[in-house]
């Protein structure tokens, strides 16, 4: 719907503003992550990705992995996995182990 498109645009706009902010973005990210609306939780994954882009932050990776396996929305889980790539692009050697963890937790049912 038009309303959902507006919410998605705002959520992604908030995510873009968080670029490079690291801990300064945590309050906004947590508020978005806790929202009932999956579109805002989707935006939270990108906000986390951009706030910690290239840092390899263990905390960000832990949050994204948890979301990737536990959120009820397919879109939010997908965004969390994509966000992992943003956070880890400077440390590609960590990716195979994380993919292995995701595969082990995958449940198609």
Automatic annotation (TrEMBL):
<dbReference type="GO" id="GO:0043161">
    <property type="term" value="P:proteasome-mediated ubiquitin-dependent protein catabolic process"/>
</dbReference>
<dbReference type="Pfam" id="PF13646">
    <property type="entry name" value="HEAT_2"/>
</dbReference>
<dbReference type="GO" id="GO:0008540">
    <property type="term" value="C:proteasome regulatory particle, base subcomplex"/>
</dbReference>
<dbReference type="GO" id="GO:0034515">
    <property type="term" value="C:proteasome storage granule"/>
</dbReference>
<dbReference type="GO" id="GO:0005634">
    <property type="term" value="C:nucleus"/>
</dbReference>
<protein>
    <recommendedName>
        <fullName>Clathrin/coatomer adaptor adaptin-like N-terminal domain-containing protein</fullName>
    </recommendedName>
</protein>
<keyword id="KW-0647">Proteasome</keyword>
<dbReference type="InterPro" id="IPR016024">
    <property type="entry name" value="ARM-type_fold"/>
</dbReference>
<keyword id="KW-0677">Repeat</keyword>
<dbReference type="InterPro" id="IPR011989">
    <property type="entry name" value="ARM-like"/>
</dbReference>
